[in-house]
User: Which sequence fits this backbone?
């Protein structure tokens, strides 16, 4: 992997990593790499990898580190534009060590989006995505014009299988257990900043950009 700037969005499920990553990639020309999106695409396409990970994802557990490392390694071997924006990776200390190895140890910029559990549950229960184009909506914050239908392509909006409340609680448990230790790791191994993610999308975006500019 060439020595490009690597930015990592950390934070619990539903903190807005994907929402902010799309905007940041658009503003700064970064390559946006979402391991969740890549894995869901494999499931949708019915590949061998997709069939191996579907049940794991639907239960809220993490996909094994070796599988995720292989996916990320392939993606980052390509030309990576102005830099790389990682969303949902790394999620374990083993993944962080792997990233450090393939990026030749250059310290990443790490933004931790902080959000209370009650708001995580609300946002994820309210999230709907389009079966056709993948656009994301929210029943509480960004409703489609017509209930259950995508504004852009007219396809049906659906709930992600892991956005049911019992699975959200499990994802939060897994986050605390396996991903939160990365906060201490990156406080020493990266350039680390925190952003309160409970404000509106625009407000959070501005805070992320400001925080990045100070790092
Ligand atoms: P993944 O897809 O990465 O799920 P996640 O980390 O749980 O994150 P989400 O996509 O649920 O939330 P987000 O923070 O991106 O929030 P969003 O912007 O969508 O992973 C899914 C699964 O794949 C994992 O459980 C695991 O099984 C597997 N996996 C993935 N990566 C892995 C890895 N590295 N290792 C092992 N396994 C892996 O926002 C949520 C909602 O809130 C949306 O409706 C949005 O419109 C709304 N919203 C966002 N921001 C705001 C705001 N400021 N105000 C109001 N509403 C907002």
Assistant:
């Amino acid at each position: 992997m060439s020595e490009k700037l690597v930015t990592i969005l950390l934070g619990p499920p539903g903190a807005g990593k994907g929402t902010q990553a799309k905007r940041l990639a658009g503003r700064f020309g970064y390559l946006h790499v979402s391991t969740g999106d890549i894995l869901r695409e494999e499931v949708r396409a019915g590949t061998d990898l997709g069939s191996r990970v579907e049940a794991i994802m639907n239960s809220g557990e993490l996909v094994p580190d070796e599988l995720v490392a292989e996916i990320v390694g392939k993606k980052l071997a390509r030309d990576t534009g102005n830099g790389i924006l990682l969303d949902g990776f790394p999620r374990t200390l083993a993944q962080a060590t792997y990233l450090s190895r393939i990026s030749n140890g250059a310290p990443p910029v790490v933004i931790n989006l902080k959000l209370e559990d009650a708001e995580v549950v609300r946002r994820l229960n309210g999230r709907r995505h389009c079966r056709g184009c993948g656009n994301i909506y929210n029943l509480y914050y960004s409703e489609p014009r017509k209930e259950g239908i995508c504004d852009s392509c007219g396809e049906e909006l659906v709930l992600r299988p892991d956005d049911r409340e019992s699975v959200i609680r499990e994802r939060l448990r897994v986050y605390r257990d396996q991903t939160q230790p990365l906060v201490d790791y990156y406080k020493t191994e990266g350039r680390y900043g925190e952003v309160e993610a409970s404000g509106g999308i625009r407000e959070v975006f501005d805070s992320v950009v400001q925080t990045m500019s100070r790092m």
Q: What stands out?
A: The first strand starts at residue 6 and ends at 10. The chain has one domain: 5-117+167-213.
